[in-house]
Amino acid sequence: MSKREKTVTRSFRISQSAFKALEEDAARRNITLNTLVNQLFLAHTNLGRFLDKLGSLRIARPSFTQLLNACSDEAIIEVARSVALDSPRAMILAKHGVLSLSTVLDYVRTMVTYGGFGEYSEVENQGRFVITLTHDLTRKGSVFISNVLDSIFGMVNVHPKMSLSEHSVILEI
C-alpha cells in the first residue's frame, strides 16, 4: 500500500475456520493479520478479479517449470508471444482503459508482485528504468518471461534492452 493511500476501517464477518487459517498464515509469515488481509485484498483487486474474468488457471511453479523444461526454446518463444497478445492487452484495457508505457509497466509490476512469478525491482537511473525480475523458473523461464515482456512492451512500441540469466530477466527502458 502506498504511504499516500488512505485507509478505510471496516468490519467483516468470516467463518471461524477462515479466521483461524488467516491467523496461522500471518504468524507463519511473521506479519500482522491486518497486513495479510490487506495483501489479500490488494492481490484480488489488482490481479485476481481480472484473472477470474479471463478464466485463469493456477498452476504450481514447479509444475510450470517442468512444462517449460519439456519444451524446446522455439516452442516456448512461440507460446510466450502468443500468450502476450491476448490476456495482457485485455487486462490492461480492463484496468486502465488505455495502452501506454505506464499501464504496461503497471501490468508487469502487478503480474510479478501478485502473480507469483518472482520478485520485481525497479530503479530509475538518468531517466531510464532498470527493471529486474528474479525467479526460480530456470533458464527456460527466463526465455518465456523475456518473450512475453518483449511482446507486451511491443504493444506500445517500446523495445527494452534485455539480458537473461538462469534466474533473472533485466530490462532497460
Number of separate domains: 2
Cα separation of the termini = 25 Å
Low-confidence stretches: none
Q: Please, how many helices?
A: 7
CATH superfamily of the largest domain: Trafficking protein particle complex subunit 3
Q: What name does the CATH topology of the largest domain carry?
A: Muramoyl-pentapeptide Carboxypeptidase, domain 2
How does the overall form come out from the CA principal axes? globular
Main sheet specs: 4 strands, antiparallel
Radius of gyration: 18 Å
Q: What are the secondary-structure elements, in order, as H or E?
A: HHHHHHEEHEE
Class by SSE composition: alpha+beta
Q: Give the quaternary arrangement of the chains.
A: single chain
Question: Mean of residue pLDDT?
Answer: 88
- Give the strand order of the largest sheet, numbering strands 1, 2, ... along the chain: 1-2-4-3
The tally of strands reads 4
CATH level-1 class of the largest domain:
Alpha Beta
Strand content: 5-15%
Q: Helix amount, in percent?
A: 55-70%
Q: Which CATH architecture of the largest domain would you pick?
A: 2-Layer Sandwich
Brief description of this entry?
The protein has about 170 residues and is α+β, with helices and mostly antiparallel strands. Helix content is about 55%, strand content about 15%.
Topology:
Layout: H1 16-29, H2 33-53, H3 61-69, H4 73-84, H5 87-96, H6 101-115, E1 119-125, E2 128-134, H7 138-154, E3 161-165, E4 168-172
Antiparallel strand pairs: 1-2, 2-4, 3-4
Helix pairs in contact: 1-2, 2-6, 4-7
